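Researcher: I'd like a candidate sequence for this fold, 358 residues long. If you have to choose between options at a position, lean toward the conservative one.
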């Protein structure tokens, strides 16, 4: 069978209003650097390559592990132990149209290499699960004047954002870098494989929008996806105070999460609070905190009537991701609500070791 003509291959996207031949030509002329060939990269890279982007650079210093295979579909069992960047490019080669250049960069980015990686890119995509990489890429793309598309997927919650030259940045959204033990990774909290597909697809959409001029990029807006509810929320944000440095810690305000020590102290003093467990029933069967009311996140909106709006609410989950979403929803409904950072897992590690971890 002969190879399809280029005009036929891209016909369905060229036909989109506002896309046209000029949009396809912009894709062909673009150089997109994707950092991360894991779960998110596996979802977005095939779309970008098959869509006709001229040069795609895949950067990842990790190697394929058996625990990756349930979601990182660019790799198979035969690739275990191989460089992810190299494995990904080998898989993508079968999808690449004529004229597409695929490049593998099997290195972890650092301060010494990030500027060269970003140099010459039309768009950079952060598909890592590394906070260090995210702050490095945010700074490097700003310095180079290159758009940055980023995403994250942990447990059952994902986020997507875009940083354009002159727009609010990742560090504006998260000016205080969380402590390492406050960050839930896939290795610790797990990840729903279909969440990677959803978030990666949204990231790919933002890349295509930026390259073709379609639609409105997610600059200054954070898209939050809760796969269990399910729900999609958009949160607008602006630039942070440029005189405030990025630090590891800062004084807590009413808008911040409560640390487990603070929650323990409140409960020890007998403060009048409502402790709300937003995990699933099977998780609560493993362990829960005394006095907590179990209201799974997906049922929260329907069960607001069970809570007293005059009494402060403390939400908690496994690692502190779902509980932030729950606190935001409760605050929007008129409750004074805050999340317990680190969830019941941190409670077990720092307050009561008899609480089982899972």
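Model: Candidate sequence:
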């Amino acid at each position: 069978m002969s190879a399809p003509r280029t005009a036929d291959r891209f016909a369905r996207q060229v036909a989109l209003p506002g896309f046209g031949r000029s949009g396809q030509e912009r894709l062909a002329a673009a150089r997109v650097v994707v950092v991360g060939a894991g779960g998110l990269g596996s979802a977005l890279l095939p779309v970008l390559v098959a869509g006709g982007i001229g040069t795609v650079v895949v950067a990842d210093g990790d190697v394929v592990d058996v625990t990756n295979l349930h979601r990182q579909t660019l790799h198979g069992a035969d690739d275990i132990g191989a460089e992810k960047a190299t494995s990904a490019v080998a898989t993508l080669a079968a999808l690449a149209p004529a004229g597409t250049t695929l490049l593998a960069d099997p290195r972890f980015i650092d301060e010494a290499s990030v500027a060269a990686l970003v140099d010459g890119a039309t768009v950079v995509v952060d598909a890592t699960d590394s906070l260090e990489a995210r702050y490095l890429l945010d700074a490097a793309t700003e310095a180079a004047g290159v758009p940055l598309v980023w995403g994250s997927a942990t447990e059952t919650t994902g986020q997507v954002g875009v940083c354009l030259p002159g727009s609010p940045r990742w560090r504006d959204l998260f000016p205080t870098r969380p402590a390492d033990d406050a960050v839930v990774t896939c290795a610790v909290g797990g990840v729903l494989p279909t969440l990677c597909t959803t978030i990666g697809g949204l990231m790919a959409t933002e890349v295509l929008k930026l390259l073709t001029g379609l639609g409105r990029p997610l600059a200054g807006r954070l898209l939050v996806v809760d796969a269990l509810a399910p729900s999609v929320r958009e949160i607008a944000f602006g630039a942070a105070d440029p005189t405030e440095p990025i630090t590891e810690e800062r004084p807590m305000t009413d808008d911040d999460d409560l640390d487990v020590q603070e929650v323990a102290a409140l409960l020890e003093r007998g403060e009048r609070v409502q402790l709300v467990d937003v995990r699933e029933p099977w998780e609560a069967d493993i362990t829960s905190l005394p006095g907590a009311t179990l209201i799974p996140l997906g049922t929260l909106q329907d069960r607001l009537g069970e809570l007293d709006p005059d009494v402060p609410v403390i939400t908690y989950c496994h690692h502190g991701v779902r509980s932030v979403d729950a606190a935001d929803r409760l605050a929007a409904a008129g409750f004074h609500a805050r999340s317990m950072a680190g969830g019941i897992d941190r409670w077990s590690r720092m307050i009561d070791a008899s609480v089982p971890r899972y």
